[in-house]
Amino acid sequence: MIRRWLESRIIWRTKGEKPPVLGEVPQTGSSPSLSSQPTKAAQNLKPIVPIKFHISSRTDSGVHALCNSAHLDIQRAPGKPAFNEKQLIYSLNYHLKPEPIRILNAYRVSNSFHARFSALSRTYIYRLLMGCTHYSQIPVFERDLCWAPAGGYLNVPAMQDAAQFLLGTHDFSTFRSLNSETPFQSPVRTILQVDIQPSSGFLSQHYEHRRLEFWELKFRSRSFVYRQARRMVGALVAVGQGKLMPHHIKELLEIKDARAFPPNAMAPPSGLFLKSVEYDEADLDATVAPGE
């Protein structure tokens, strides 16, 4: 009997010289792939067909993931009962104990469900730090988890005005980096949400006297073109620095040419986080009939 599962809110932690980071994607070629460790753990469930995890969202090297999702198919031997959600979570996490990964939720879904293609939207946040005049002023626990643009504080109201031009359906050719897949992908995307809000830093209450400000830029869309989020952040920061005016964002969209993007303006990967992947609640209904 076959069951398809969605593993939701998977957390990756990467250990190294710095403290473990929630959801950080392995950054070196020698590191295991995003799905290899869960796949290896799943083989301990003794399926009669090898299990493969299908990840909902891929991220660039250096980009973090607070929450990701994947689906897998489990076919047990004849006479073996199907796993329920709690059994699957416990079993996978038991075999993942040596690894920096934890499964938090599992949902039984129909065989037509796909973690990537069934997603309604994906939400990314980008963390900015303002008030630093030099890289050395970034709090040690925030290094590689935010971006502190040069020049200190930014004109946030101007950035918020500029962000409104990104909402809706547009050709984002100017806001994508070129790669081998570019000729085969449409540059048209629909941005459902753009927010720029104040945030807090890790243990920031202990260094309030430094007058540092954390801000989060949130973007929600069904999908994004290659490096779109980082280029949107970079352009908005350029507005905040006075290098661009808000209306220039509209003009960049209208040009529809990646070569028109301001040079060296793309935000670094360190501040970007995949926050969540959203699905239709009906797709996550656990009351799936046997065999579906």
Written description of the protein model:
The model is unreliable at 7-32 and 288-292 (pLDDT under 50). Helix 3 packs across helix 4. This protein starts with a strand and ends in a 14-residue tail after the last strand. The strands form 2 sheets. Strands 1, 2, 3, 5, 6 and 7 form a 6-stranded antiparallel sheet that branches. A 6-stranded mixed sheet has the order 4-12-8-11-10-9, covered by helices on one side. A hairpin with a 6-residue loop joins strand 1 (2-14) and strand 2. The protein is an alpha+beta fold. The protein has helices spanning 36-42, 85-95, 156-163, 228-240, 246-255; strands at 2-14, 21-22, 54-55, 64-65, 68-75, 101-102, 105-109, 121-130, 168-171, 188-199, 213-221, 272-278.
Summarize the structure.
17% of the residues lie in helices and 26% in strands. By secondary structure, it is an alpha+beta fold.
User: N-to-C SSE series?
Assistant: EEHEEEHEEEHEEEHHE
What is the count of DSSP helices, taking H or I runs of 4+ residues?
5
Q: How many E-type strands?
A: 12
- Give start-end ranges of low-pLDDT stretches: 7-32, 288-292
Radius of gyration: 21 Å
Task: Briefly note the structural class of the backbone.
Answer: alpha+beta
Helix content: 10-25%
Mean pLDDT: 82
What is the CA-CA span between the terminal residues? 10 Å
Shape by Cα distribution: globular
Please outline the major beta sheet: 6 strands, antiparallel
Please state roughly what percent of the residues sit in beta strands, choosing from under 5%, 5-15%, 15-25%, 25-35%, 35-45% or over 45%: 25-35%
